[in-house]
From TrEMBL:
UniProt gene name: ubiB
Record's bilayer topology term: Single-pass membrane protein
ABC1 atypical kinase-like domain residues: 91-339
GO cellular component: plasma membrane
Annotated keywords: ATP-binding, Cell inner membrane, Cell membrane, Kinase, Membrane, Nucleotide-binding, Transferase, Transmembrane, Transmembrane helix, Ubiquinone biosynthesis
GO MF term (any one): protein kinase activity
PANTHER family: CHAPERONE-ACTIVITY OF BC1 COMPLEX CABC1 -RELATED, PROTEIN ACTIVITY OF BC1 COMPLEX KINASE 7, CHLOROPLASTIC
Major enzyme class: transferase
Protein name per Swiss-Prot or TrEMBL: Probable protein kinase UbiB
Protein's organism: Oleiphilus messinensis
Role of this protein: Is probably a protein kinase regulator of UbiI activity which is involved in aerobic coenzyme Q (ubiquinone) biosynthesis.
Location of the active site: 284
Pathway in which the depicted protein is active: Cofactor biosynthesis; ubiquinone biosynthesis [regulation]
């Protein structure tokens, strides 16, 4: 019943603001044109508002999930006229606020104290109001200026209803649409559900902010405000108040003499630093959450707020993504195609040469062009057509990253349309990859993991024994291989007191695993010779120190 009620509200809002006029009727098949003519929307009077205002108000009425979608659209001025984009921009921090008395009650309940015992002053009129929460200015008893973020009342119920509708729609898409299984809509909705409910917990957001602040401590790229943990709960967050110019206020930035080219380049650098250095990135970087400090116009610094949605990647996804992007920047489309196959993003039986040719036809036209000359709408359409042709699956773990990339690209388009995105990003990626595979990177990895490896050596004999037992059960092993494994297993049993044999068995087992993993071989081939020499020297030293001598 709640799904039906929510659907009725959605259709009511569509009719109320006559959003049916946004549908390009001339491109629809005849049966859909007839269906639209029969809808009851035509009985609604047309509002005396602009198209942009109607779209914005409809999203505000429909709640936080639709507001967030509008925030994303507001950065895509290549897809919408300026008047619509300007209206959607108001969704970033000008959503209608809720009652100040409610805000006061939520703050006192969350902090378990009267406001007068925490703040010397508290402004009931909100500074900004967004889809999930609103922000009030305040001053602590010690005089420090802060902002107080308060979760909207009853917001969770509305979000749950929208998520249920999204699941229902995803089931229909997966079952009846020809591309449904490839798009994996249920997994995408599940990941979004986790993200949006995490955003409702302000204590989690405070932890995200603290982590990001540590990552960029003393950095000239971006400043993260301080969190006051003594006054933070799941429904209330108290944070240092910052003063800056909204990043979307381009006229003011230019009037302050801000170096717009440097500002746009720093935005790209911040994104790649978060994704590849830290694997912890701000995934809600719409203009309402980003400010610019005017303190040093020639070397401007960003200021970020609102850390409810953060993303991260596994080391495997990090590596594949970095190598894909580097190959893309170098126009090595064969490598891009091969990496997609190796990672399982396209079926294993995909013909590399055909996939390479398709990628080249999509990507080549956008190189050596500034952002202002690139139609990303057309590019994404072509990319989607290529993905469908080769049965490429959507990667749910990358959806947040793709959303953030769209935000970054939209920001760059506003700040400095002549930005060369490729030449800005490529040096950073090359430097990151170099640090990973050269001796300093190898030594750091060894330093980080060696204590754990040392602890696990005591468990290794049993683990190896269990692994061999499992391998014996596999039908595809040949008789000769089975004999070899049995011989090695007996050798392990006969020498349980000798650590030297455990080390030997471990190395043999690792070698067998490596030899069967083509992806790992492909990665190992890229490591410089000097790194291999250093690694072998380190292994020799460690084994000499770790393995007791047979001499009495």
């Amino acid at each position: 019943m709640t799904k039906i009620q929510r659907l009725i509200k959605i259709f009511w809002v569509i009719g109320k603001y006559r959003l049916d006029e946004f549908i390009p009727h001339q491109h629809l098949p005849a049966y859909l044109k007839i269906l639209l003519l029969l809808t009851p929307w035509h009985f609604f009077p047309k509002p005396e508002l602009s198209e942009g205002a109607r779209l914005r108000k409809a999203m505000e009425d429909l709640g936080p999930i639709f507001v967030k979608f509008g925030q994303l659209l507001s950065t895509r001025r290549d897809l919408f006229p300026d008047d619509i984009a300007d209206e959607l921009k108001n969704l970033q921090d000008r959503v209608p606020p809720f009652c100040s008395d409610q805000a006061t009650r939520i703050v006192e309940a969350g902090l378990k104290k009267p406001i007068s015992e925490v703040f010397a002053s508290f402004t009931t009129e909100p500074l900004a109001s967004a889809s999930v929460a609103q922000v009030h200015s305040a001053r602590l008893l010690d005089g420090r200026e802060v902002v107080v973020k308060v979760i909207r009342p009853d917001i969770e119920n509305t979000i749950r209803q929208d998520i249920q509708l999204m699941y229902a729609l995803a089931e229909v898409v997966e079952k009846y649409w020809e591309d449904g299984k490839r798009l994996r809509p249920l997994e995408v909705v599940h990941d979004y559900q986790q993200t949006i409910f995490d955003e409702l917990d302000l204590q989690r957001e405070a932890a995200n902010a603290s982590q990001l602040r540590r990552n960029f401590e003393s950095s000239s790229l971006i400043y993260i405000p301080e969190i006051f943990w003594d006054y933070t709960s799941s429904t209330v967050l108290v944070m240092e108040r910052i003063y800056g110019i909204p990043v979307a206020d381009v006229d003011t930035l230019k009037a302050q003499g801000v170096n717009m080219k440097r500002l746009a380049e720093k935005g790209v650098e911040i994104f790649f630093t978060q994704v590849f250095r830290d694997s912890f990135f701000h995934a809600d970087m719409h203009p309402g959450n980003i400010f610019v400090s005017p303190a040093n116009p020639e070397d401007p610094q960003y200021i970020a707020v609102d850390f409810g949605i953060m993303g991260s990647l596994t080391p495997e996804d990090q590596s594949y993504l970095a190598r894909n992007l580097l190959a893309f920047f170098r126009r090595d489309y064969h490598q891009v195609a091969q990496l997609h196959i190796d990672s399982g993003w396209v079926p294993r039986d995909t013909r590399v040469n055909e996939f390479e040719s398709a990628i080249r036809s999509v990507c080549e036209p956008i190189f050596e062009k500034p952002l202002k000359d690139i139609s990303f709408g057309h590019f994404l359409l072509r990319l989607f057509q290529t993905a469908r042709r080769f049965d490429m699956e959507v990667q749910p773990q990358l959806v947040l990253l793709q959303k953030t990339l769209l935000n970054i690209e939209g920001l760059g388009r506003q700040l400095y349309p002549d930005l060369d995105l490729w030449s800005t990003a490529q040096p950073y990626l090359e430097s990151w990859m170099k640090k990973r595979i050269t001796p300093p990177g190898f030594l750091k990895s060894l330093q980080d993991h060696f204590p754990q490896w040392l602890e696990q050596t005591q468990e290794m004999p049993q683990l190896i024994h269990d692994a061999f037992k499992q391998m014996q059960k596999l039908d595809y092993l040949t008789h000769g291989q089975q004999q070899s494994l049995e011989s090695l297993k007996n050798e392990l049993h006969n020498n349980q007191g000798t650590n030297r044999h455990y080390w030997l068995a471990t190395l043999l087992f690792a070698a067998a695993a490596i030899s069967s993993d083509k992806n790992l071989i492909h990665w190992l081939q890229g490591i410089p010779v000097q790194s291999w020499l250093l690694a072998l020297g380190g292994v020799y030293f460690l084994t000499r120190k770790s393995i007791p001598s047979r001499k009495k």
